[in-house]
Structures are given as structure tokens and as C-alpha cells.
Amino acid sequence: MQTVDPRGDQEKIDVRYVAHLARLYLTDEEAETFQRQLEDTVGYVRKIGELDLAGIEPTSHAHLVQNVFRADEPREGLDRDTVLENAPAGEQGQFIVPRIVE
Amino acid sequence: MLTSVETLTLHEAAGMMERGNLSSEELVRALVETIHSRDPRIDAYVGVDEDDALGQARAADEARKNGARGKLLGVPLAVKDVINVKGRPCTCASRILQGYVSPYDATVIARLRAAGAVFLGRTNMDEFAMGSTTENSALKITRNPVDTDRVPGGSSGGSAAAVADGEALAALGSDTGGSIRQPAAFCGCVGLKPSYGRVSRYGLTAFASSLDQIGPLTKDVRDAAIILSTIAGRDPMDSTSLDEPVPEYEQGLSGDLSGIKLGIPREYMVSGLDAEIERAVRGAAEACRNQGAEIMEVGLPHTEYAIATYYIIATAEASANLARFDGVRYGFRAPGAHDPIEMYGRTRAAGFGPEVKRRIILGTYVLSSGYYDAYYLSAQKVRTLIRRDFEEVFKECDALLAPCTPTPAYPIGDKVKDPLRMYLGDIFTVTANLAGICAMSVPCGATAAGQPIGLQILGPAFGEETVLRVGHAYYDCGRNPR
Amino acid sequence: MQEFETVIGLETHVQLKTRSKMFCACSTANGAEPNTRVCPVCLGYPGAMPVMNEEAVRLTVLTGLMLGSRISAYSRFDRKSYFYPDMPKNYQISQYDKPLCEGGAVDFDVGGEIRRIGIRRIHLEEDVAKNTHFKACSGVDFNRAGVPLMEIVTEPGLTSPEEAFEYLLALKRILLYAGVSDCNLEEGNIRCDVNCSVRPRGQSALGTKSEIKNLNTFKGVLNALRYELARQIEVLRSGGEIRQETRRWDVDTGVTSSMRTKEDEHDYRYFPEPDLMPVVLDAGLVEEWRCSLPEAPRKRRLRMVEQYGLPDYDAGVLAADREVADFFEKTAAMTANAKAVSNWIMTEMLRLLGETGRPVAALPLRPQDLAALIELVETGQVNAGTAKEIFAILFEKGGDPATIVKERGLVQVSDEQAIEDFVDRAMAGNPGSVQDYRKGKKAAAKFLVGQVMRLSSGKADPRVVNRILKEKLASE
């Protein structure tokens, strides 16, 4: 199982690429500051690589519950006017965004 | 006539209203006046809905005339601005939710409303609950009521400051890594984080879905018990809320600790812990012993990995939870974009503050291709080890006593430049969120400089009865002067 | 073409036949005004949380059972992150490495041969919103966002566009039969992504594949594949290389073209959905659901032969459509003459169904009405011709056969005297035909019978008419 080696060389983080995955435009200044701060933080969290995690199950949920279902019963939702009032741009009942180019 | 609404507890007010000595309308007016006169000093509130609150108060008084009863009838509460209240803004202290008006009530709000509670106003917080000082709010800075040059803690800093300063009888907050308990400790009030799955999260703007919980900030433990009884319980709208029965938590407040075994985790009483805080916590343990408890030392060996684990898991989940803020359906949208990608990039750049951006980037990174196993998956495994640590200790004792924070409240501006140092302050609180257990902070004295110190009481999952019992016996009954 | 062989895999997204969405209670009914079937959950509002629709899970498991898949004892949902305006949360709740079903196969007929394609997995996810493109902007309608979508992934084992087409037809038949989806392509109930590549015959390594997404007709799949494979072969023949990319099929121009890469990094950053609990299906529950599966067509056919004494041909026709078969069995339960029921359905009912395109479920004609009609014929109250008229009325408008007969005076005339009168009049009015018959043209009798029927407004009992006419023609 692949863990980080906290004693090994820290990987270089491409902050601009990661920010792009998260659709965050960064200024040059932000990119530089965040690069430093993130490297600090990642340098710290790599600590968990000290532990032997072989055979340990990951915890996705604090408590083990299963099969939490809902019956297939339709219900009224929100009224459209209310919904479009919150929209930054709406017209003819639709949410309007800049032209999507496929 | 109401003389001192600042120190009035929820249960005292309920008693007065029950006996006809006070109306909800009077109570709300008194609080609104208090807010007007005191809040400019600490800026705990981001919005006070005076007219609406008075309307609710009158309705509660009317209902009482017609036979309605209940501890929360007519009781005004402040709500951290991360919880959806129908018809109100829910800014999460962020620019990106500018203009958003919630079309629905969170389940906890609906339950409180049904019990007749009155919603007074919304309190300040760190943006999207990310931070430990409330300095990350895009709206304003909140100040610690005991010393206004210091932070009130975070992210529920507004709620804690409002309660501690007498501007609210009680408030709701949210806790992902300590955000109820730590500000309660810094401001000198009670703050309870229920077990994960105890209280519905439907309507709580999500930060970290597997760690978040809504909880009360109050002036005493009895008030916390009263609020918890109303908001707890399975919610069909929240698949992670458990089907555990909800006791009348007030019933368990026996006032004594005979037969209770309390453990002090040695890893929490280490160097780096402020000496005055250590002394106060040990003093509290002694007080508990005098009330009949058995005190012992226990071990939580994986404590030192908790912050690393927390900041991997919480930021990963947050990076996904905050992806929905994109300018399409609600909130702020950066104008003039030529295509959706540009709209997203510019909206989120202008809409989010630096701490939120940092955490989104870190969270995206630890989930990204090539790093998932090493970071996120590994952190989930360390989480299992931390959970097991608690399961083990709770075989030996009923609850744990620990410090809440390594230091008392620090000056405003102190940690802003150094996020990592700020993260390290969460060392005693993140463990409860990772393990899914319950934990509460109660005041246990002050530093020589007068800064409040918080005693943390941790209990097993769905063991709120024990935690409340210990807190009530120690704090409510043997009240320590501030 | 012979020097290359083709490798095709299909991912088919099927909208499940549920009444509410996958993770919220909004209605899935079609045709609503934009953004009127929405709520905080399917709009991705702050604080909203998903709750799993049990029926969607059941329908997916049923599909797995129909296809012979392994139903996973433990499965869960994951978040699949990417940004797009039709994504309310900018992550889709889907299933990554623990899908509901794995394995299975679909048999289909291509060019007279039965072929089998393996199914890799079947999983459940939520559909995205619908984008409409205008000149200067795009509009988003979230009615569709959150509709339960079942994704069926084949092994990359289809070897021609024709096989892909036949596979889809076979899959659709199975899904319709199990009642899992309406499979209405116009309403977008089924959409396909295809992956295809070519390699020189004999080469074991796969060629570079390209993907064509969001094909919403089976013909589209066929034509897009034909074009794309030809294109790939052409590129390779002229010494070029195939780029791994996503292409768009333009149905008007009939070509695929490279899409501007909006997501050249497909880093979906999957992680387990913290807001949903795992699905743990024990054998008992799966068995309970298996029992609710409709009988497979072949099995039903065999049973109908045995149970109703029907000829195999009849049983075959009836069992092919589940609703028709249901209608047959309900009617047969109310009469003693199953063959009569079968005849009526195979002739009149299927004909009218074909002509009008109406679904069986929407017919005003009910099993008890057909049973009553058969009874009327058997007791001689109406003749066969009249019965056909009545059937047509029942099919169109519904009603009670006995009442219709009464109201329209359709009772069969069997009275000997009355029929004698009609016969006499027919013979008197057509002396030429009478003479023809007596001269040896036996067929003239038929004409005369027709005249008698006309005179009696079709109500005369044909058997009696024939007898009396023959008697009268014979005498003299």
C-alpha cells in the first residue's frame, strides 16, 4: 500500500494546476503565497506516513449503518419563481449562463 | 421587568414565561436592546431580524395563552450564519453567497420552530466554517468580549461571543474540528458538539460531511441539554443521522458524580500546553473527584496524527462540497465572463477568501490522481486508529477530561499569516470529530490576565447523557467564577 | 476492410422508471415547464443532502438479474468531480469501484446468428440537467437533474456497428419486458457512449480508441460507428495515428469531429460519498426482488401451451408482449374458451393495436368485456360479423357488450320466419343470381347470402341463412 514517506523528498506541488482542477483563478501573488503555505502544510500532513497502516480498514463513515433508503414517492419541490429569484441570471424559466461551447 | 438579560439562562427565562412573569415579546425587546448597546463593541451579529423576531415572539405569547407549553416556547436564539433559515440570507460569511436568500429551513430550525423558539438573528463566523478565529469572515471581525483585542475563536466565534456577552440566551453553532468548543473556551461559555449522526445536518451548509455537527452554545449545561433534546434525532432528509432514541437530556442532570470514572489522556497534557490551562484542567479534575468521580490517566496514542489526518479529510470533503458555489444558480457571479469556465474561475476567485481557497486547493490535491492513496485513503485509515483509541479508553472510563485549546485566546491578527500554526491549535478538538464521539467545553477558570479557560469533556458516541451529567455537576452546580 | 478488425464497447445510460428522482422526492414525470420539478437537493443548494431511492436500487438489481450479473453484496456511491453548468453540485453522485452489479451477458441476433456480449458492470448514478444553447448564452433546466440513471457497460467485445445496433435492440427488449425503463428514445430515456478502435487483423494489442458520447438513437450509434471506424482505418492506412479523444457525432452532416477538449484532464477525484450509507444486499432481499421479475418470454410461452391448451404458434405470438399476454390470461380466466380469446387477440386486437399504436394499458377495452363478448357469440346472441363491430367499439370507446347490443339492436336474428322473409326478398330481387346458381354457378349463392345479410342489417344468423337459402334454391 502506497503511503508517503515523510522522510523522503517532498513532491513539488503544481498549485496552478490544482487550482485549475478546482476552477479557481489565482493571481501571481496568490499562486506564490499559496505554493509556500501549501508546501508547509503538506510537509506537515505527510506525517501520517510514519504509521504502519497495513491491514487497517479506512473509515468513510463514523458509524456503521447501511441501506438507508427512501420510498419512491414524489413530492412538490420549490416554486420556480422563488428559485429564479436567487439566480444571478434567469430567463424564460431557465438559468442563464455564458454560451457553452462544446 | 427584566433586569439582567445578560446573565439570564434559557431555562430561567422559560420558567419566568411559564409562570407569567415575562413575555417572549419583552424578552426579545430586552435582547434587541442589549444587542444594540453591546454588539458594536464585539460585532458578534451579522444580522438582527428585529421585526420578524418580535412577530414570532408575539405568536409564541399568543400560543401560550391558548395552552401551548414547552421549554423553548418563546425563547429567542441566535443562529450561526451557516444554517439555512427560510426567507433569510445565509451568507456563511462569504462574498460568494451575497444575495442568496434561503428557500428552506434546516431540519434543526424546523424542529426549534415547531417548539416555539424565536430566531433573533444571525451570527458571524469564519467563512464556510474554515478557521479558528472568525477573522476569516468576509463580513466583519468579531472580538472576544472579555478582551476585545483578542479573537473570540472560531469558526462559531459570533455565536460564542454573543452568548458570553449576554447578547443571546443561547445560540446554534457548527463544529467540524472544534468550531463550537474552541470559541466557547475562548469566550467563556458552554459549547457542545453532539456525536456524529446525533443531530440532522440537513440545511447545514456542508464543510466536511463526515465531520460536521450542529450544536448549542449556552450559558450553562442545562440549557445545552434542553436544546439538544429538541434538535436531536433521526431525520429522513439526512441519511447520516442515526435512529438512536433521544432521551430527555435534562433528566440525567443528577448533580453528582459518584460512580463516574473520568480519564485524563496523557497525550493531551504535554509540553506546548499553556501552564495555566494545565493547572485549570487538573483543578477541574480535582473538583470532580470531590464530587465523587474517580480520576485516572489514560492513553490516546494516535493523538499526534490527528491534525494531519483531519486536514487531509476535512479539506478533501470541503473541496467537493464547495464546488457548487459557481455563480450558476444562486449567490455572486463575476460579470463579463465569455464562457462558463471563465465564469467559474473569476467567480470563485472573487467570491472566496484566502483560507477557503487554501483549503480547496489542499483538498483537491489530496484527492487528485496519484495522491489519493497516499493521502486521503491513508488518512481514512489513521482515522480508524484514532476511533479505536477512543473505543479502548471508553472501556475503562465513562468520559474524558482534557484541555480544549493549547493556549488561551490570542490577539487578533496573530495567526493570520501562518495557517499551519493556526491549524496546530486544533490538536485537542479534531479527535472528537474524527472519531464521531461527543464533546463539550465548559468554563473552568481564567488565566491571570483574565482570559477564559475551557475544560473539555469527551464521551463515547451517543453518550451525551454522561457528558452533560459531568458538565452539569462540575460547572452548573459548582460554578467557577470567571 | 478485411485487414482490420474492430473492437467496440458501449456504455448505455438508461433512465429508470421511478416516480421520483434518485436522491430527492422531486417528480420524474416528463413534459413539465423548465425548473418546476426542483428542490434544494437537485439544485445543489447549500445544506442539501441526498437520500437514496430504494426503487432505483431494486430496478438496477432486477436488471442485473435479467442479465445474469452478480449482485454485489456490498456496494456504495462515490463523488465524481467535474465542473459543468448542467451539474448542480459540480460533482455527480455515481458508483466507482463498488457497483451494484458485475458481470452478466446479453444475447442478440445478428444476421441470423446468435452472438453473446459480456456485461462488465451495471451501476447507478444521477442524471445531469439539460442545457439549451442560444446564440449568446445557454440555458439550464434542472428538471432532469437527479433522475436515476442506470449505466450498463459492456466488455469491449462487439465487433461491428451492426452488432452494436442489435445489442441495443436486444437490451431494450429486456429492459421493457422487465418494466425497468420506458425506453422512450425521444424522451431521452436511453443514451449511449461508444468506444471504438481498430487493429490490424492478428494483432493482439488493442488499437487506440476514440469515444463518441451522448448518442440518443440506435441508428445514430450505428451510423456514427460506421463513419468513425472507416475514418480510423483511413487514418491508419495513410500512415497516421489515432488520437485518444472524445468526438462528437453530427447527425446532419454524418461525420464525427473532435470536441474542443473541455476536460482534457479527466481527473474525477473519486472518493466515497460521505452523505450516503453503503448498500448491503443479503441473499434474502435479492431473492425477494427476483420473485418480482416477470416470467421470461420463453418460459411463459411454454406454460401457456400447457395451461391453456393453446397451439405453440398462438402462445408464441401472445407471450412476445408482456401486456398482451397479461390481457390474454386475465380474459382466459373468465371464459372456458381460451382458444377463442387467443383468436380475438391475435386477429382483431393486434391488428387494431398495430393500426392505432395505442398501448394495451391505455385501452378502454377490459378483459371482462372481451370475455362477455365471447359469451355473446357462443350463446348465439350475435354473429361473428356483429361481434367484430362490437369489438371495434369496445377498443375505441369501451363499454359493456350486452348494453351495446341492446342499444344498437344488434341481436342476431335467428328466427326462421324472419330469415325466410329475407331470403325470399333476396331471391326475388336477384333473379339473375338465382338462375346462375341453378345453372351450376355455386358461387352465386354467396352473393345471395350477402344480400340477405344486407337486408337484415347484418344480424341474420349466417348458419340459418345458408340452410334456408340452400333449401329454397334446391326446390323449384
Task: Please tell me about this protein's structure.
The complex is a heterotrimer of chains A (102), B (482) and C (476). By secondary structure, chain A is an alpha+beta fold. Helix content of chain A is 30%, strand content 9%. Chain A is built from three helices and three strands; from the N terminus they run ααβαββ. In chain A, strand 2 (90-91) and strand 3 form a beta hairpin. Chain A is flat, with a radius of gyration of 23 Å. Chain B is of the alpha/beta class. Chain B has helices at 10-18, 24-42, 50-65, 107-114, 157-164, 181-187, 221-231, 275-290, 306-321, 340-351, 354-367, 373-396, 419-424, 430-435, 464-477, and strands at residues 45-48, 76-80, 118-123, 170-175, 190-193, 213-218, 261-265, 294-298, 399-403, 438-446, 452-459. In chain B, strands 1-3-2-4-6-5-10-11-9-7-8 form an eleven-stranded mixed β-sheet, with helices on both faces. The mean pLDDT of chain B is 96. Chain C is α+β, with helices and mostly antiparallel strands. Chain C has helices spanning 54-66, 161-178, 218-237, 283-291, 297-308, 312-319, 322-332, 338-356, 367-378, 384-396, 401-408, 416-429, 431-439, 444-455, 462-474, and strands spanning 4-15, 52-53, 70-71, 74-75, 78-81, 91-94, 101-102, 105-110, 113-126, 130-133, 137-141, 148-154, 190-200, 210-215, 246-250, 255-258, 271-272, 279-280. In chain C, strands 1, 3, 7, 8, 9, 12, 13, 14, 15 and 16 form a ten-stranded mixed β-sheet that branches. In chain C, helix 5 (297-308) crosses helix 6, helix 7 packs antiparallel against helix 8 and helix 12 (416-429) packs across helix 14. The model of chain C has no long low-confidence stretch (mean pLDDT 91). Classes of the chains: A alpha+beta (102), B alpha/beta (482), C alpha+beta (476). Chains in contact: A-B, A-C, B-C. The interface between A and B is large, with 57 and 72 residues. Strand 3 (94-98) of chain A pairs antiparallel with strand 11 (137-141) of chain C.
Q: Mean of residue pLDDT of chain B? A: 96
The named CATH superfamily of chain B? Amidase signature (AS) domain
**Distance N to C terminus of chain B:** 26 Å
CATH architecture of chain B: Alpha-Beta Complex
Summarize the amount of helix of chain B as a percent range: 25-40%
Rg of chain B, alpha carbons: 21 Å
Reported for the largest beta sheet of chain C, the result is: 10 strands, mixed
Instruction: Give the strand content of chain B.
Output: 5-15%
What would you call the shape of chain C?
elongated
Integer tally of domains of chain C: 3
Oligomer category: heterotrimer
Report the helical percentage of chain C.
40-55%
Report low-confidence residues of chain C grouped into runs of 5 or more: none
User: What class, by secondary structure content of chain C?
Assistant: alpha+beta
Order of strands, main sheet of chain B, comes to 1-3-2-4-6-5-10-11-9-7-8
N-C termini distance of chain C? 81 Å
User: Averaged pLDDT of chain C, please?
Assistant: 91
